[in-house]
From TrEMBL:
Signal peptide positions on this chain: 1-16
Source species of the chain: Trematosphaeria pertusa
Protein name: Uncharacterized protein
Superkingdom assignment: Eukaryota
Keyword vocabulary terms for this entry: Signal
Length: 147
């Protein structure tokens, strides 16, 4: 009898919870870098670094499973000054990406945008056709954008 009640309760709970779409980027509450790199559109991507914190804005970071904008694609809606861990099958899978003009993004090898993590900083207006060029192919786990 108890077991029956429990399963009835679980069924009720399951139906009360709307099906959630798999989330590609999951915001995490972690300390942010003390400073961010200057935003310079078209500047060359570089592997480490960090200069100017402004108010939060939203941008879209485009990511692809394969190099040269091939394979699965998703536009990640991203608030600036917020760390995101990758979800929805994107962890350690991104092979090409683009960052819109006016923003910069830092990509990390591990979750939670750790300040000591190996990272690739991509200034705005950059499209990286193959992350292998920076030894970051299939290695990104979290990222953080700024403006
Ligand atoms: Ca890939």
């Amino acid at each position: 009898m108890m077991k029956l009640l429990l399963s009835a309760a679980l069924v009720a709970l399951a139906s009360a919870t709307p099906a959630k779409r798999a989330q590609a980027n999951i915001p995490v509450d972690v300390p942010l870098p003390a400073s961010f790199p200057a935003v310079v559109d078209g500047a060359t991507p570089f592997v480490s670094g960090a200069a100017s914190k402004v108010k939060r804005a939203t941008l879209i970071v485009d990511v692809w499973m394969d190099s040269d904008r091939a394979g699965r694609h998703e536009g990640l809606y991203t608030d600036t000054n917020r760390c995101y861990n990758l979800g929805n099958g994107w962890n350690d899978e991104i092979s090409s990406l683009s960052v819109p003009s006016g923003y910069g993004c830092i990509f990390y090898r591990n979750n939670d945008c750790g300040s000591n993590d190996n990272r690739l900083t991509v200034p705005g207006g950059n499209y990286i056709a193959n992350l292998q060029s920076y030894d970051f192919n299939d290695k990104i786990s979290s990222y953080l954008c700024y403006n």
